[in-house]
Amino acid sequence: MPLQQQIIYIISDKRSGSTLLENILAKSEVTVSLGEVAMLRNHLLHEGYGEKWNWSCSCGQDLEACVFWSAVLPAVLKNDTGKNWETKINFDYASFGALLFSLFPGLSKKHVFGKINNPRSRQVVANINRVYQAVFEYTGKQFIIDSSKIPAQALALSQQESTQPVKFIFLTRDIRGIAFSKKKSKLKPGSVIRLSIKDLYKVWLYKKFCKAVLRFIPKEAVLQINYEELATTTEKTLQQVFTFTGMPSFAAPQYMELIDDHTIGGTPGRFQRKEIKLDEGWKKYYQQHRLQNFVGNIFNKS
Prior knowledge:
Blueprint: E1 6-11, H1 18-25, E2 31-35, H2 40-45, H3 69-77, H4 96-103, H5 109-116, H6 119-139, E3 143-149, H7 151-159, E4 166-172, H8 175-185, H9 197-214, E5 222-226, H10 227-232, H11 234-245, E6 255-256, E7 274-275, H12 283-287, H13 290-301
Helix pairs in contact: 3-6, 4-9, 5-7, 7-9, 8-9, 9-13
């Protein structure tokens, strides 16, 4: 009996290991990984996010020249250039409204639900669903991996009609590691890293917002895992994913590497073949910055 087609949407902050998880799941024969579908418009128009790799597919080609995307996009765009075509729901995750929703989701959901249900957001979901459908038809695969990470987008996908069921994997990581990695990625090599309490607060708020979103998604459609376990006990964590999604099991890979992939977005490090191992380089920084370490630890527990 063939498996039902299914979307696996990864929710997480940046620098939380979403590219690693996506890359591991892409090794299955029944999956196709798209990377960050929310960034598809950027890659089509060569603007905004994706400049570091010239907005190309992970195969190295421009989307119009890529064997995968050049076959999928015509059915999605229908002669549109993509200029008026959106694939991302915008939301200010550092706003006061985000804080209220994070702390009191039941009492302050009106603002967030208004954002994800407005005409623009509904059109974004419709566009994304067309992408999913075109990919399923082109590849014949049972699972699509979307590592867009965006919690508001995940909520919108869960609330609006979809031709395929969507399951959500909430990937977490130590807040101190995320804040450090984010700051480091924005600096030139050799620059001195200086983290503020505000940097840690923003990561904490985003995580709280993600958790608030999950309150409005059916529990059976959500699996929470963390990066530390994914990187150290990969086989065990994968078994949780297999049980949750119904995906046929396969051996955990030893390396994170691109093998005939056609993903967009993700960490720039995805182009390098790397052994799967835990990145704890951030700990040295916090050994010398005890206040940030203390606050970050408190945030982790809240």
